[in-house]
Amino acid sequence: MPLKYGGAKVNGRLEKNPYFGFTTLMVGWTWRNRFGVAVMVLLLEFFTACTTVPEVGRSQFNLISPSMERSMGRDAFTQVKATTPFSNDANATAMLQRVGRRIAAVADLPKAQWEFVLFSQSQANAFCLPGGKVGVYTGILPITQNEAGLATVLAHEVAHAVAHHGSERISRVIAIQGLGIALISNMNDVDASTRNLLYAAYGLATTIGTELPHSRLQESEADKIGLIYMARAGYDPEEAIEFWERFAENNNKKNSSTPWFLRTHPLDEQRIENLKRLMPKAKLQYRPRPIGEGPQATVPKQIKPILPRTVTLIDPVSGVAKKVPWVPALTLYSARRKAGLNRVPNTATVERRGRVISGKRGTALQPGDVVRWK
Fold it and tell me: How confident is the model over 294-308, as pLDDT tens digits?
């Protein structure tokens, strides 16, 4: 799913967050304002926080608070919806909502404002903005093929949001570029042309040396977390392998010649092998659910069988079964009188819901009882 990082397409592999220009705005402001360097340093000193990525346990550097993250994601998604046509496919939209709810129900993202929208776009793409705003392009549906395939995509995208990968990227760019600006701008013995070359070299070196490897790390994390989430949501994690094989086949048709070290995503073959290695752990959390069952579905209450409102008395002579309407306080004696069985013993056996009890004249009968005399 194509990555637009600050508005520029990086490559044609699997997504990140399109239309997410906050990083570019912050870095551009820093470049234009020398005081921005000092501000960035203060931010790093006062607001630096290390959080832990759920399910994988990696410590990450993140300057963005959850509330700010949700606000940014909400604003960006509003812009996407205003400029991108929605799909008119009611069935596909319903499937997206159904699968999305199941994945969101198992995602560890407090106060998420989940929203799943199907956009009419030919690209094989999907994305999840911070805070739980998920967009899927119709172009990926021929590759997902079914609910489990779509669950693979959504679980991967939701995993990016749960792991706060977008905020982490912003934080890293602020820190890395802020540091570079601070170092190079303090080189008083170089002219402006040389300084610009140093800026460009620093940006290229940090992109290839740190940011692209980190992007591939985040994608691998999203694969791992997504595999667990789809299993918990009741989708067979083995279906993830089949989806990524279909996705790899689709990528191969494009004949991309981008070297692996310039890619934002792991090679398709590598990610498939990683998923196979992770499969035993995911399988342990897989509990199948019927297709279409909602995320909050509960086991239906056991409905008590409707008992017949009659009592059956077996004539000991003819063997004929005689039905007597049941009424409250109906006793063995009154029932046999209503059935016309006057010459029978006072004691009998009563069959009641699989049990046999001894009955006497005053025994109270219940609906469905069967009375027999020897």
Answer: 443 332 333 344 445
